[in-house]
Amino acid sequence: MANFFKDQIIFRGDGKFRLVRVQNDIAQLENITTGEFSNHDEADLLDEYVRGYLRTVKSKQYQRSPKRNVVQEALEAATPRARQGDFETRRRVNYLVRLDRTGAFDGPRSALCLAIHKVAVDLDDARPPHETTVYRWRRKYLLARFDVRGLLDGSWHRGGLGQSRLNPAVESAVQEKIETAFLNSKSGTAEDVYNAVFLEIQRLNTTRIESEWLKVPALRTIQRRIEGIHAYERTVARYGEREAQRRFADQLCSRRVSRILEIVEIDHTPMDVMYTDSDGQVIDRPYFTVVFDRRSRCVLGFCISSAGHGVHAVFEALRHAMMPKNYLGERFPELSLEWPCHGWPERLLMDNGREFHALAVVDALTNLGVTCEYAASRDPNDKPFVERFLRTFNYSFIHKLPGTTLAKVHQRVGFKSEDEACITFEQLNQMVHVWITSVYHHRPHKGLAGRAPIDVWKEDATAFPPVLKCNAEDLSIEFGEFGECALQRYGINLNTFRYVSPELLALRGMLPARQRVQVKAPYENAGLIWVWDPIESKYIRANNVDEQFNNLTIEQAKVIKREYETSDAHQRTRANAEEWIREKSSEAMQSKKLATRKRGARQAHTTSKSANRPQATASEPQVAQPPRSFTRESDELSDFEIESVNLEVDHEKE
Q1: What is Dmax (Cα atoms) for the chain?
Q2: DSSP assignment of 332-375, as one string?
Q3: Does residue 629 contact residue 548 with C-beta atoms inside 8 Å?
Q4: Could you tell me the strand order of the sheet in which 37-41 lies?
Q5: 118 burial level (CB within 10 Å; 0-12, 13-18, 19+)
Q6: What is the DSSP pairing of strand 264-270 with strand 347-350?
Q7: SS3 breakdown of the chain: % helix, strand, coil, rounded to 5?
Q8: Does the N terminus or the C terminus of the chain have fewer Cβ atoms within 10 A?
């Protein structure tokens, strides 16, 4: 067995063995610990060696720092360490090879001495080694079984490498001041430590005689001590344990998924661009909420909103992601946009924002069969794919548009975003559609081995088709504000509005006294709510008694109601709620103050909702008004609708 030799020590796993004998390709091994003998085939041992299970040495015995390249070695040859290292190793090899060729080791010691001097002349070596040194080199070479690594120079191990040569009192002062003046400070420097050490040594010298005064170390000594501090320890001292763990965490691969819609991520970000109205007046910097598929890296849906990034933005982005994008041909007829990404996700991964922890979001996703999962607190790497997409979205697309604010304030040099802004909200929404469907989805993705996200989606959609688990109406019901309200004889009071319907009042008679009911209130329409019927296990529609609040958001309706309460009665009859909202929002957005224009955009509920949904057809049912016979204040007066708000206010005062 030529691969191993007698009495060789080998390691198999955690065990240590000695090779006893080899016969007919069968090796007999002795367990050093237990003394047990075992026979092994040569091929099996070689296979274990290839797999790494069998090792010939416990650890690497011959090591030196790796060299970058030949040119770098030549450049570093002038340094003392390189000359003592590489050159000394080559010198030893040259002496042993030349002496072995002449047979100098077979003769007496005097003959070896003459041979050494002759080789020194050939090598132009002014200081030839002593014969004892050559014998020592040869012994190391033989013990290493003719391995040249046994001749590696180890001069860098000489001296007190890594050991302090300073006086213990001085060393203690240096370490103490590094801890107090450098590590405990957010911006400490080596000069600060040096000054603190200087003062400390001056203080110590006041208690010593002149012959025992301590010497102040040089600034370079302080710098070397600071350079030797471990990066993790420095981060812990300056920024805390949590930040250090985040910076030095193991960046392993994230959770793998095997199909589309298995894990879907959602997040917000401010869009780094300012949009304008039709007259070129700068309005706002909107928020962008995106729903992102981890498997295909495709964008499932989004919501652009100047009305904040609350629960309504989450619901609108989820609705856009779940529903088919059949509005593209009608909304953008001049563009051939394809966006086949939709469906119910199995698991929705969110961060810990208030809007994601809202009871309405959790209840809606649970009823829709979607599992809610929250990323670790202050750990963006727990949902890295959507975070990386948002960076790509802003840096690769938004930062190239006129009116961009860029990512950082210090980057806005030589221009003002407000002066360059010229894109309207509708144009911005259209540009986002085009970039996602025609640029991002068709761009080769490094995380997909160079494949385009849309190709991965189509391939997986063939094996795992997206599922539409609920009706579109059910989706609209679930994506509403959740609450529990008391069912009164006149209906339900919610958000200072009164809702009623025949079915709702009939339900009151079938429930126990003072029974509270569960309600879903759409954020985008204050004209209706959905009440859960626990008897029939279905939702009942209840309409607002004042039809002026139909198709207004809850926030818009509250603004109108507050204005009504402070206005005269005749103005109430003349004013139309939707027209009033448009006028107030338009006035605010024409203001010279940017903050006022932002408030106007919020009141107008400027979002991508209307643009990212199919147009309503004439056949769709309109919001119906409840019969007046079921209301407490109803009578035969013809001006009931005009005085409905007054009646509601009177009822609240009772």
Answers
A1: 137
A2: -TTS----------SEEEE-S-HHHH-HHHHHHHHHTT-EEEEP
A3: no
A4: 37-41, 26-31, 15-23, 9-12, 54-55
A5: middle
A6: parallel
A7: 45, 15, 40
A8: C
Please answer whether residues 528 and 520 qualify as being in contact, where contact means their C-beta atoms are separated by less than 8 angstroms.
no
Domain boundaries, the chain: 9-55, 70-157, 168-247, 264-463, 486-653
CB 182 within 8 A of CB 197: no
Class of the CATH-defined domain 264-463: alpha beta
Instruction: Give this prediction's pTM.
Output: 0.68
Q: Is 151 exposed, middle or buried (0-12, 13-18, 19+ CB in 10 A)?
A: buried
The tokens for 209 are 């005689």
Distance CA 300, CA 461 (A): 13
- Mean pLDDT by groups of 10 residues along the chain of 654 residues: 76 88 88 90 86 74 51 48 67 90 89 91 90 92 85 72 85 93 88 95 93 94 93 89 84 84 95 91 93 96 91 94 92 91 95 93 93 86 91 95 91 88 94 96 94 96 90 90 91 91 92 90 91 92 90 84 68 56 64 66 69 57 39 39 41 44
351-375 b/e (C-beta count within 10 Å ≥ 16 → b): beeebbebebbebbbeebebebeeb
